[in-house]
Each structure stands twice: as structure tokens, then as C-alpha cells.
Amino acid sequence: MSGREGGDRRDMAIRGAAEALRPAMVAALKELVQIPSQTGEEGLVQEAVARLMRDHGLDVDVWEPDAATLAPHAESVTLGSGFAGRPNVVGVYRGSGGGRSLILNGHIDTVEIGDRGAWRRDPLGGDVVDGRLYGRGACDMKGGVIANLFAVRVLREAGIEPAGDVIVQSTISEEDGGAGALAAVLRGYVADAALISEPTNLAIVVAQGGSLMFRLVVPGLSAHACVRDEGVSAIEKFAYLHRGLLEFEARHNGEIAHPLYDGMVNKAPINIGTVRGGAWPSSVPEWLEAEGRAGLVPGESLAGMKRALSDEVARLADADPWLREHRPRIEWRDGHFAPAEVAVESPLVHTLSAAWRRVRRAEPAIEAVTYGADMRHFVLVGGMPCVMFGAGDVRLAHAPDEAIFLDDLVAAAAITATFTADWCGAG
Amino acid sequence: MSGREGGDRRDMAIRGAAEALRPAMVAALKELVQIPSQTGEEGLVQEAVARLMRDHGLDVDVWEPDAATLAPHAESVTLGSGFAGRPNVVGVYRGSGGGRSLILNGHIDTVEIGDRGAWRRDPLGGDVVDGRLYGRGACDMKGGVIANLFAVRVLREAGIEPAGDVIVQSTISEEDGGAGALAAVLRGYVADAALISEPTNLAIVVAQGGSLMFRLVVPGLSAHACVRDEGVSAIEKFAYLHRGLLEFEARHNGEIAHPLYDGMVNKAPINIGTVRGGAWPSSVPEWLEAEGRAGLVPGESLAGMKRALSDEVARLADADPWLREHRPRIEWRDGHFAPAEVAVESPLVHTLSAAWRRVRRAEPAIEAVTYGADMRHFVLVGGMPCVMFGAGDVRLAHAPDEAIFLDDLVAAAAITATFTADWCGAG
């Protein structure tokens, strides 16, 4: 029998195993979704992940990241109140020897549920309705953690033994900078390539936007509301700066020349996410603090974007009689994301694309995204080529009624297993 | 000796006594300023006030307002968490009989200190610099409480015994609606006239603006910041509504025809005092709550202004594609102030003006103000004519470096004493 025929048979065995494991995959994802794991509170869900990994035959390493080790990277991750009770979990599937190694990474932390009244489904229910599983983290990205874990299980069920090591990671603290993934790199988990199963809608994402997390502090002048014209409203001054930042965003979009970002609605969004101002309804507000996120694309640097934003805030302040004398401040929070990319022509993208093509009998989309994720830690600190590929739509990621299509989840597991066999070499 | 000669001698005795009491007045005001008494925390300072009243020979009544008694007026005052440890203090100076009675009212609560960094003086210091005494409440209105108290003391020192009762009040909770003054009216403290020593810069204020306290709740649609155009920012939608409310304010100003408000920069200000929105820097904010105050002038009703503001918010929502389907809500907080006024031709205004003229040898300003205060409780509930008159500039009232000119404080005490003798009749 020819190698190609053997390959075809192997591909079919993988697809069959993935389909057969669908009920187990759904049950496992439901279990993880039912355990809340907002960033900072990952302990309980990681116990379930570690158990799943052991059940799947992996050698499991559970450890709490060490803030001192991460301190040199403090700008890019959040050290916050530390990592006690918030372990990383890594499961290693030892290869038979001689192949390329591969990291399959996913983060287990989620953003908060938000306004529960905006959800029509239970955010901690894991309900399956019309082929989707609902809940906070279903898509971003407990689904991805499950797809990675079951990719290895699929290989075992299909009787395929990879030659290189497969390292499945469930890391913490991605949503506030990626301390977990970085800690895994610094612990020595470095491989010949890494795949992060973020919700890319099954596209192969080769370029990841960066983001700066900022705080904008705007001074006003208090006065009694009855003579409000004697005061200066920090809320009104903020509105002026916000309009200015949105104009800056539009100009920046016009200047971005990266080909993979062409045609995007917003290549580098500036989002004001929170605002807190004033102390008393009948006083002119004398302070306001806003927090937000500014995007950048591969090829741009965090330092350069910081300078550009600081300059823009200074320019806006210079143009306003009050702010000229009472300067607004832009400060940098923890948790910046440097942009990162891998060459479209790299062996990693080539091998993953080929596996995708065989499983789906179609061409994969090769894309860039505007969000920042853990890719940069693997590329910039770990020196590994890294892509993102996974089921789920990022548009649902931080929104009410977050959900994942189960067909896509099974497809992601099948493609990941096929790719793993190809990349690591398999008998 | 003629009545006029006797009157001149009496006036001079009053002015002399007021000047002689200046050091005691300053010491007493300093003591009150050094005791913080933000609304809700009036207990400690009222102990000092009660002691001062007893020292000045008044019969003192100390009682905590009863929320059940105030409940029928809940729209106009704040019942909040009740009045335990927050007594009113009223001191009565019994007249010799046969004269008109008079209430001299002041509130003892203050707004919060705010951003301490914006103060160049200690907000709890009571420092005297260049003829002013500094600190939160110095002007709004511990100064006024002291002026009233010392007006009675001045009469005693000058050997003048009023025929009618003089009722000196130190009431709580004015800044959030005036539960204290209302409770005093409901306890039966009703007189032939009332004077509130709010900081009017020694003007005789005969018309008081009203104010509605509102909360504006604005819905957005959450999304990850990296696809912010898929979400709807509650912060941006609020900015649109805020601009609309400021346009409403300008139109309303143009429609106000009350002669005493002619020529004011802003006859009925709309102030957004606080804003809280969003939960996460990298999520599009899905909610925002703002709190504010909308002014109205005598002749306008709270109900009418509520309707006008609700209609305006609805009109603005109708004109916006998102808000049309996701309605912002305007809700009414506690602590509304109905506007109130007293006729310029009334005996009260006539008598106070005459006393003012004799002490200052000049014409008093007869004014209207845009702020709401306790005047309405005396006029609308107590059925008494009421004016506001006191030292201090309302422009400093809720601001950093609040202060009062001590010359004005002594003048206010002298005018109030002269007026009290005239109004109540005195031997």
C-alpha cells in the first residue's frame, strides 16, 4: 500500500474517531462551562482539566506561576495579586521519538459574565440548543481547550502514535495579559511549533493584533450644579478627548498597510471600556477615569503606539483652553499585547493548511485578527512559530449568549489531530 | 427721646456687640468646620451646636427625625438609611410676648470634601488667612448657622429682648433634599417668618430655583474590543444624550420669563454629576448610569419638568437607531427641590431690607438664585414667608478651598440681629 493510501486511511480513522468522541467532547465542554473561571478564579476548573488530561493518558504537570519569574515581563502580563490557587495545567503525550514536537495551547480563564439580564441562556449552564453549546467561555475558549485535549484522544482511539511530543496546555490569565502562557514558556515548555485554539472560526490565523491597555485621567473643576458654568465638567472634557481618540483611530486605520488587514472594518480599534467620574449628582464632576484598549498591527511596536497615543492626548489637550492648563494623563495599565505573526510560507502554516484541506476538502482561510492573544509569548519569548486555529466566532467571545457550534468543535478536533499526526510524524 | 433716636441707639448697640463678638464667632465657626459633617454624618457636629446654643441661653430641643413622618414627602427628601445618630438641633429664645415669631434656619450638613489634592488649604482646618476662614462647610453653611446663633447672642449682649420667639435651627440632610428642615416644620416649628442663612453674598434672596435629581440609564451592546464595531458603546450613546440634554437646557433657558432670572448666565442648569459605565477595558461597555440635576424656576412644577425631561430623552432615543430599540431610562432619585418664592412686596422682605439699609447704609440686592434649598419646606409645607440671606459666596460652596469672609460673617450677624429686633418687636 502506498504512503498516500496509508495517509487516506489514517485521515479517515481520525475523522471517525473524532465523530465517535462527539458525545464525550460535549459532556467535557459542558462540565468546564459549568465551573466559573473568570480571570483570577481558575483554580476549580483546572482541577477538572487535570482530571480530564489524566483520563486521556497524559503526564500532567500542575504548578502555580511564580510572580518573581514573570516580573521582567510585567508590562505584558498582569501580576496583580499573584497566582496562589491559580495553577497552569500541562499534559504531555510522549512521542515515540524522532518527530517534531508541538504545543497545543488554550487558556482556561474567561471574562466576566456581565449583565446577566442580557443573556437569554444560563451563562453557567452549558445548555445545548440547535447544535450550539451556550455559556461564558464556551467559545473563548473552553471549547478550544477541549478540542486540543480530544485531538490527542482521537489519535489514541485511532491507534496513531506521534513521533514527537505533544504538549497540551490549559493556561490561566490570558484575558489580562497571558501570565499563564508566558509562565509555561519560561518553565521550559518550548516546542518546534505551537497552535493556540482561540476561536478563529476554523481560519488559520497567522497574524495577531496587539493592544495597549490604558487609563485616561481627566481633571475638571468642581462647582455647585446651580452655577455649573463656573465649573468645568470632567465628563464633558472626557467626551472631547474620546471624540479625538476615535478620530485618531480612523487616521491610524488609513495608514495601516499590512496586506492581511486590508478590507477590515477596523484594523486597530480603540475601545473605551470603562468610565467612572464625579461624586455627587449636584456637583460639577472634577475628575473622570476611563480605561480602554488601543489596537496595533504586526510591524508596529508597543513603544511606538504609546508615543503616538501620548502625543495625541497632548495635542488634544493643547487645543483646549482648560486641558492646556490642567493636563489629562494617559497611563499604561498591565497586560499589553505585542502584535505577532508567522510567515504564511512557513512549514507550520503549510502543514496545517494541508491537513485542513484533507479533512474539509476545501481551502482554509488564512487570516489576520485584530485581537491580541498569547501567540506573542510563544513567538517573541519562546522563539516558536505559532498559529491560532479553532472553532467558535470571536464576535461571540465577550458577549451575552456566548456559544460554540458543536459541529465546528468536532471539526477542529479532527483537523488538529490530523495536523498533529502530520507535524509530529506518526506510525 | 424719639422712637427713631431709640432705634438709632439700638442699631449702634447691635453693631457694637456684633463686632465685639467677632473673636467668639470665628472660634465657634472654626470649631464647627473642624468637625466633618458630610450629609449622613451630622451627629458629632450637632453635639457641638447644641452646646453652643445652651451656652447662648437657648432652650434646646434635640431629636432624630422620624422616617415614617417624612414618608409622605419622600419625593422631596432623602429617607435613605434613616436618621439614627443624625439629630436636628433647635434652640428657642423665648420672647417677652406679643411680637411676631421668627425662625433662623441653617443646615449643618456639608457635601463631601472631594479631591483633597485640589485643596490648597486643609478642608478640615478652619484656617484663617487674609480675612477668610477656610474649610468644607465654612460658607455652605456652618457660617450661616454661626451667624444665626450669634444674632441672638448679639441681642442679649446689647440688652435687647425680642417680644416674639426666636427659633434658631441647625438642621440636617439639606444637601440631599432637606429632611431636617422638613422634619422641623412637621414637628410644629412654624413661625410668622423664616430666614435661611444660606450663602447669598448678603443679598436678600426671594426666589429659589428648584431641581430634579435624576438617573439616566443607557444600554449598550457588549463585544470584544477587537471587533468594537460589532458592539454598541453605552459611553458613546450617553455622550449623544448628554449633548441633547445640554441643547434642551439652552432652549429651556430661552423660554424662562421670570423677571428676577433675567440676565443670568444659566437660569436652570442641567448638570451631569456622576457617570459609571462598563466593566472591562477591552469590552465594549454595555451599560452606563449617570446621575444629575436639572434646574427649574419658580412658576414651574416638578411634575411638568419631569414630563419635559422624559419627553426629551424619548425624542433623542427615537432619533437614534440603537436607542430607538434599546430605550434609555430616566429615573427620578430622592431629593427633589420644588422652586419657591416670596413676594418682593411682602412685610418680611420690606422689614429685612430696612434693617439691611440701616446697618450697611446702602441698598440690599434683591435676587433670585438657581439653586434649591430648604426654603420650599417653609413656604410650601409650613406656609410661612421665607427668604434666604447670609454671608458667603455660593460659587465657593461645593468647591475646593471653600471659604467665608469674616467681615461678611459679622455683618450678617449684625443685620440678622437688627432684623430680628424689628420683626419680633423689642424693648
CATH topology name of the largest domain in chain A, in short, is Aminopeptidase
Output the strand order for the largest sheet of chain A: 1-2-6-3-7-15
For the residues shown, what is the average pLDDT of chain A? 95
Number of strands of chain A: 16
Alpha plus pi helix count of chain A? 12
The chain pair with the largest interface is: A-B, 65 and 66 residues
- The CATH architecture term of the largest domain in chain A is 3-Layer(aba) Sandwich
Number of domains of chain A: 2
Structural notes for this entry:
Two copies of one chain form a homodimer. Chain A has 427 residues and is of the alpha/beta class. Chain A has two domains: 3-208 and 339-424, Aminopeptidase, CATH 3.40.630.10; 210-332, Alpha-Beta Plaits, CATH 3.30.70.360. Chain A contains twelve helices and 16 strands. Chain A has helices at residues 3-20, 22-33, 43-55, 67-70, 138-157, 179-186, 234-255, 302-318, 321-325, 347-360, 375-381, 406-424; strands spanning 59-63, 88-93, 102-107, 128-129, 132-134, 166-171, 194-196, 204-208, 210-219, 270-277, 287-296, 329-332, 340-341, 366-369, 386-388, 403-405. In chain A, the strands form four sheets. A six-stranded mixed β-sheet of chain A has the order 1-2-6-3-7-15, with helices on both faces. The first copy, chain A, is elongated and about 80 Å long. At the A-B interface, strand 9, helix 7, strand 10 and strand 11 of A face strand 9, helix 7, strand 10 and strand 11 of B. Strand 10 of chain A pairs antiparallel with strand 10 (270-277) of chain B, so a sheet runs across the interface.
